[in-house]
Amino acid sequence: MSQAEAIPAAVRYHQDYGATFRVRVLGKSIFYTIDPENLRTVYDSSSEDWGVSPQRLKALQPFCGTGFITADGSAWQHSHAMLKPYLSSSNVGDHELFTSAVDHFLDLFPVDGETTDMSPKLEEFVMHDFVDYHIEMAIQNIDHEKKSILSEDHDRKIAFEHQSVLSSLIKNTKDRKEVRWQILQSMLAMSDTCSTLASNILFLLSRNPSIWKRLRHEIRGLDFDNVTVEVLTQLPLLRNILKEALRLYPVLGQYGRTALKDTILPKGGGVDGLSPIFISKGSVMISSLYALHREPTVFGSDPEIFNPDRWNSVAPAYCEYMPFGAGQRQCVGEQKAFSEVAFLVAKIASKYARIESRDAQDWTGEWRLIVKNLHGCRIAFFRT
Description:
The structure is a single chain. The protein has helices at residues 3-17, 36-45, 53-64, 73-83, 89-92, 96-107, 118-151, 154-159, 165-170, 176-206, 209-219, 229-233, 236-248, 289-292, 296-299, 334-351, and strands spanning 20-25, 28-33, 50-51, 116-117, 254-259, 263-269, 275-279, 284-288, 354-357, 365-367, 371-373, 378-382. It is of the alpha+beta class. 51% of the residues lie in helices and 14% in strands. Residues 154-161 have low confidence and may be disordered. The N and C termini lie far apart (44 Å). β1 and β2 form a beta hairpin. The strands form four sheets. It has a five-stranded mixed beta sheet with strand order 1-2-8-5-3. Strands 4-12-9 form a three-stranded antiparallel beta sheet.
């Protein structure tokens, strides 16, 4: 089975075998579950029983060392604490440099009606913006501190709170190797997530012109130079478009954990699958977001359809919808990714009257570190 076939196959397997089932591969047990009670146990109430390092550390350590993506326990807590200031609400809300980068990106867009694959363009933009953004912020921090010292303007210095990921890290450690590891893991987590989400949204909107028209109506008059995270998240259609894209095509695809000790899942045992089930140390648990986000009892009878308006009526419970994970390891960059992609999509919608799909192929997931559309995002833009 190819990677492209494996992603939708997860839906069929859960339809055939239930919310929780076990597969044995070379003597090792792999438990597949999308039962919300099991997910709450693994990712929240009994999260200390489960870890990621047995699966991730060996594969990723040569490239990006030990950090919040690859570590468990105290090592993960240390990495998380170092990055938290960079991803604080006040830091996320500063769009000044990101706005400038988006404006430059839009200036490079193709002429009206020209077919272009936005997937690689967005990858390049997000990666370059990530690097340039934090270099610029580090320079601004240094310049501002110099001016503050010269003017003895203490209040102004305190008010300048925006932090790059680099400044957040060096306040906690001077270990260059550790700083490098955290930056590399931050780039892995943020760059592909943002570019893939933006690409999926444009892919979907190019095939739904009526929703694009409604989005343009919603964002008319938006002051992009001074827009805040609060304003963006209060735009119902824009918010619902992002939530629906993350439901239909979750960027991460699935989560995996390894049992660090003998433990129990509350459901999956017995003839009816409703009894607790014993999990031995070393067993692997996999939860497919692609299957979880297509549960008809939660999302309605048409889960394969892109319908942002469904979010006006559906209200998934905890761990019934989890595009950025759940529990203490829920993605720390969720708000940043959500706000920056929302800003980018809104800015594109403000500039182009319509977009048009130039690819008749269905979205087909290609599994790398994250799940991308194998066929890219071939579309055309029109100003009028």
